[in-house]
Design a protein that fits this description.
- With 103 residues, the chain is mostly helical.
- The protein has one domain.
- The chain has two helices and two strands; from the N terminus they run ββαα.
- It has a two-stranded antiparallel ribbon.
- Strand 1 and strand 2 form a beta hairpin.
- The protein is elongated and about 75 Å long.
């Protein structure tokens, strides 16, 4: 008996499951997750950079606040670089394994 299937054929009647029918492989699932995570991470990193800029403006020459703000901005920039690098690594791995998708 199959409990976790997308479609069941019971007595000639097909019962369709709630999942998206385009998710047939692991590559499709990874593609869908990456379509959600990369923009979310970019938005979070943008807020980190804005937060660092705000702290920088309010540091008023205080060296500790200045260094903290500089670290936030630097962290946000490094995060963007790593995010772009992760995007291209996923694209290369998808090309190597022949996984095609809209990502």
């Amino acid at each position: 008996m199959t409990y976790l299937s997308q479609s069941l054929n019971i007595g000639g009647q097909i019962i369709q499951g709630p999942l998206d029918t385009r998710l047939n492989t692991v590559g499709d699932i990874v593609n869908r997750v990456m379509q959600f995570l990369i923009p979310l991470a970019a938005i979070i990193l943008l807020f980190v950079i804005i937060w660092g800029g705000y702290d920088y403006m309010l540091s008023q020459g205080n060296p500790e606040k200045y260094k903290s703000a500089q670290a936030k901005i630097f962290t946000g920039i490094i995060g963007f670089v790593l995010l772009i690098l992760a995007y291209f690594i996923v694209k290369v791995i998808a090309a190597i394994f022949g996984v095609s998708g809209s990502f």
